[in-house]
Write a structure and sequence with these properties.
mainly beta; 10-stranded antiparallel sheet; 6-stranded antiparallel sheet; about 40% strand; PEP-CTERM sorting domain-containing protein; signal; Ice-binding_C
């Protein structure tokens, strides 16, 4: 009887908007365990053909797995008398990760660009968290934290290679509009973030932690996330490998307001003490 008010107060706090909000959050290890599968799904640029010689360009878009829509831009095709060598930007799901790749059918295309030549490559992948019974529905005036692991060991996140890389993430509302980032703007540039070290992770890799803040109103409908990347890649860089970056272990969670929790906690303690001393 003396302690009954404390559990009731904590229950009321747990159900208040901005702390749980009633929405289902995203965890690629549990309620969205199929987010990075099935393997072997890809969107790959097929460069334009020519009668003979080198052509550059091309784009491709399409669905990727169950939740993603991907777009890739940039490629090259070298047609000679005995065959064709091609390379192009690619977004793929393989080995439980979202990959931003270069697709080569022959390594000879790397040298075909010549000295000073480079490919302008762009990648985009957007997931909508619309699984029945587990939709991500954003609440107003709420901070959301995204965490995910990044592997950029093959070059995309290495800005010292002279490829002018970009790699960013956005949180999208129910209308696919970008939500404000907690630090300003809407697109968070992963390059330049201090990634949290993961034991055994390769260079230019680690865990990214970013936050977004909704306003006083937010569009209804399932929310999503979008990753975008680009690079100006010369042949001398392409031979480092064909996987420029990959993303795994995505999690989206609500960040409780410290002031609300702190004040409520003090109130609960004070109430508990009054009950005990009454």
């Amino acid at each position: 009887m003396k302690c009954s008010s404390l559990p009731l107060l904590l229950l009321a706090l747990a159900s208040s908007p901005g702390i749980s909000g009633g929405q289902v959050l995203v965890d690629s290890a549990s309620n969205y365990s199929d987010l990075f599968g099935p393997g072997g799904s890809e969107v790959t640029v097929n460069p334009p053909d020519s009668l003979i010689g080198l052509t550059v360009g091309g784009s491709k878009s399409g669905d990727l797995g169950t939740y993603w829509k991907a777009e890739a831009d940039g490629g090259a095709s070298l047609k000679v008398v005995v065959g064709v060598a091609e390379t192009g930007a690619q977004v793929a799901l393989n080995d439980g990760k979202l990959q931003f790749n270069i697709s080569n059918n022959e390594s000879s295309i790397l040298g075909a660009l010549g000295i000073g030549g480079a490919l302008d490559l762009d990648w985009s992948a957007t997931a909508t968290f619309n699984k029945s019974g587990n939709q991500l529905l954003l609440a107003p005036n709420t901070t959301y934290q995204l965490t995910f692991d990044v592997d950029g060991s093959n070059g995309l996140l290495n800005s010292t290679l002279g490829i002018f890389p970009t790699f960013g993430v956005e949180l999208l509302d129910g209308n696919s509009a970008a939500v404000d980032a907690a630090g300003g703007g809407k697109l968070v540039n992963i390059i330049g973030l201090e990634l949290l070290g993961i034991v055994g992770s390769p260079p230019y890799s680690g865990r990214a932690v970013v936050q977004f803040q909704t306003g006083s109103t937010v569009a209804s409908g399932p929310a999503g996330v979008r990753f975008t990347g680009s690079a100006l890649a010369p042949a001398t860089v392409l031979n480092l490998g064909t996987e420029f970056a990959s993303v795994t272990n995505l999690n989206i969670a609500v960040v409780p307001e410290p002031s609300v929790l702190g004040l409520a906690g003090l109130g609960a303690v004070a109430l508990f003490r009054r009950r005990r001393t009454a």
